[in-house]
Structure formats: C-alpha cells, structure tokens
Amino acid sequence: MGKYDVCLDTKVRNDEGEIAFTGRYCTVVLYFNGTNVGTTMNSLLPYLRAQPYSHQYESPDEESRRGLDWGRRFGSVGGPGFPKHTILSAAECWSSWKSIFVKDTKESDKYLSCLHGIRAIAASQVLWAHVYCLNDPRNFYNTLSLLDWESRDRSSTILLAKSYVVDTFFCLSGAMALRSSLRTLQKGKIMTAVSADLIIRWIRLAVPSIAAQGVAVLTLHYTTGPFKDIISEHVSDRCSSIWGAAFLLENTKHFEDACLMQLWYVAVDYQLRVLFLIPLIAIASHSNRRVLGFSLLSTMLLVSIFYVAIITYVYRLPPIFIITPKFLPVGLTYFYKIVISPMSHMASFAVGVCLMNFIEEQRSGRMRKFPRAVIILLWITAIIIGLMIISVPFQWQSGGDPETWGNILFSGFGRTLWCIALSSIIYCCAMGHGGPVNWVLSLRVFIPISRLSFAFYLLHCIVLGRLYASRRELIEADHFSFAVTTGGIGIISLIWSFIFFALIESPLSNIVPLFLKSKLVSPRRSL
C-alpha cells in the first residue's frame, strides 16, 4: 500500500505455485471484495487486482523491435500518377501546423462560428467526465470511499451527467451531414455526390483511427509501471489483430476484445451516416421526397427513444452512467447496450438534421423565420432542460430505485432533450439572436481547439491509460485530485493532438482531393 521498502522482496504464489506478485511495485491488492462484481464481471477480475510490472514477458530490446515492427504495418500514404512534389506539398508539416492557428472562417460559414466553441467546450467536458467515470479504483487510498463520495456529493452529478455530452458531437454530426448533402446535391449526380461524401468521411475517420492505434501501442510499449504488462499486452495483441477494421466495428466489441474502446464513437458516427443516408438525400432534394425523408427521420427518432427506454427497463439500468454499488454490476451492460449502440444515438443525429434544416431553410427564404416569442421560448427551453439534465439524476445517484417510470422516461428522452436544448442555442446563435452567448462561443481562441477536437478525443484516453499504467502512488478521491488530473491530461493531450493533427489529419485533408479529383471535397478549414 505504498510502502515499497517493506515489500520489495515479497513473492506471492497462486494455487499452482506460480509467482502472482513479485513485489517490484506495491499498490492496492483488490478492487472490491468480489461480492458485488464477481458474478457479473468475471471477465474484468484480472484487471481489478494488482499485477505489478515485472519484465517477465520480453526484454526491452525485443519490446522495441516488436513495437516498431507493428508500427510499420501502417505504411505510408501515396499513390501512382501524382508528381512527387505534389504529395510532399500536400503533406508538408509547416503549413499543417500553421493551419491550426488560422482564426478566420469563411464568410459563408460565419453564421455557424458558435460551433467552434461548442466543440471545444464539449471536448473538455468529455475529458473531465472520463477522469471521473474511468478512474482506476486501484489508485485510491480507500477504493470504497470513491463510491461513497460520488453517491453523496451532489456536485458529482453535474460531472456524471456529462455522459450525455458525447451526444453533442452526434447532434453536430447530423447537422453537418445535412449541410454537406445540401451542398453536394446542388452539383447534380446525386449518387456520385453521396458516394464521394461517404468515401471522404470513411478516409477521414479511418486513417486517424488506425494511427491512434499505433500511438497507443508504441506509447504503452515504452511505459513502465505496476500495470504496464496488463495494459500493454492487451492493447498490442488486440490492435495488431483487428487494426484494419477496428474503426468500423469497435462498438461491437466487449471490453476484453476491443483494441481502443474510444473508437466506438468513430464506428457509431459512420454507422449513423449510413443509416441516415436515405433520409438525408430525400430532405436535401427539395422535392416531394422531403415528406418521405422527414417521415423516416421521425420514425428513427422514435425508435431510438423507445429502444433506450425498453433496454433501461429490461436490464434495470440507471438513466446515466452512475458509479454506485447499486449500479456497478450493470455498468458494463449499460455501456454495451446503450452507450456504444448506434440505436441510442439516432435521436441525437435526427435532432441535428432538423436543426440544420430549419437554419438553412430560413436563411434561404424558403421558410419564415421564427418570431421573437419563439426565440424567447427556445432560450427558456434550453435553460430548463439543461438544469434538469444535470440535477434530476441525483435521486438515482444517491440510491433511488431504478425500476420507476421516471427513470425509464428520463433515460429514453434524456439524449433527445439534451440535443433539443443544444439545438435551441445553436439556432439562436446562427440566426443572430445569440447575444453574449454567441460572442463567447465564437471567440477565436476556440477555433484551434475545435480543429483539434477529434485528435484530442482519440488521444486523451491513451494519455489517461498511460497515467494509470505507470502510477505507483495512491491518491485521495476528491475534486482537487481529479481537477489536477484533468488539467494535466488535458494539456498533454492538446500537445499530442497538435502533433497528430499536423502529421495525420491536416495532410490527409490535402491528399484526399488528389485521389478523388473532385470538387465535392470540402476545403481544409471548412466547418
């Protein structure tokens, strides 16, 4: 328990006589007493016990060679038919670095400049929520105090409610998907335009996701710490076997079979693009097919709401991801059935599509703008829903019964209501009724962070895993400790994201047009 000099030479053997603990490093021996989680989380028990790093698998030289060999699988980007200087110019790092700090948006995009602030704030909230929700209990002086603290501290509810924040990105994805469809369909050749958009989206999600796997493997290979062996071997083995399809299938994997669990978002985002393909084409066509498009959109929204409500009722799940002894046994079920399922996020995507439809239709003059009374109502709605989302779950966090209609309704409608509140704010800002809120969200300081938000999301979990793998000291469960962790992880993740964007994302956005030879490709600094 932190007294390394006492147990350096300790050796503990299991029933078969094999060495289970060498005493090289000391930490918490057991996560829980096994009673609460033993029957439902057997697959995680190896991760819930301290298994110190003992260099028992490979020598450092062999580890280095293995990591470099695995990294070579990613190869290099290139293709026949392009002059060498063209590829080099597109991938030139200096211009990529400078593009991060270009704080001007195109004149045609300025009405949506508030999205930069929303992306930046949402990315920081995701990190904050992950630090609270994904903290390794082995790192605390008293692991049960973590559950006791989070069940009594009402301020923790605000942080735990941020599990809905990821739906902010799905809502924005739906809005930008319709905007992209409206622009590409204006060029004619509907199938060509849609196919090109899906290919571009696939490339821009696939390449960074695969690169993130390489970063994770190499980072953990050069990590030392009590849990290095467990995490490094797991990530290396899983990523090396499924790296090519991980970004599309990661949300179908269980924890023990996944490469990087944060890639579930990438998979769900692309799956939603495919699922909403027909409604997007119909709505963007500005013809009689719009009725079909909105009918399908409404149906998918309702299916998503009922799916979450039914799953919550059948499996007795909490409305949000709550870390309490009562809900811990169903924590993985909540994650597998709701968090990483595209069915749960269809409502968020649909709300984003409706949002962009209202904005574009009213800006083009095809629809009358909302009167002042409606604008005021939208602001009131956003405030009320926001306060409800972050306060109501405390009754379940403090031990409330999950088998209630209130829990089921809140779980089913929670993501939809969150996105309605968010869409109300975006609409008001885009239509010139944002006032000081729009001014804050449109600050230029948010633009670089917004551009780095995808890289930040991919990498911050790797940095967090690196911290847990190497941590040798125990900490207290309090807001100050978590704030320090959040700040440190955030700064390091931003630095990594800057390098990742300059080497991967930005060159990729320049190279894609060289291969597709199409005017349908969006400029690098577009929203």
Automatic annotation (TrEMBL):
Alphabetically ordered keywords of this record: Membrane, Transmembrane, Transmembrane helix
Entry keyword Membrane: yes
Entries under Pfam families matching the protein: Acyl_transf_3
Keyword field contains DNA repair: no
GO molecular function, one term: acyltransferase activity, transferring groups other than amino-acyl groups
Protein species of origin: Galendromus occidentalis
This protein's encoding gene: LOC100899410
Membrane spanning stretches: 263-284, 291-314, 334-358, 370-396, 441-468, 480-504
Superkingdom as given in the UniProt entry: Eukaryota
Domain Acyltransferase: 114-500
Name used for this protein in its record: Nose resistant to fluoxetine protein 6
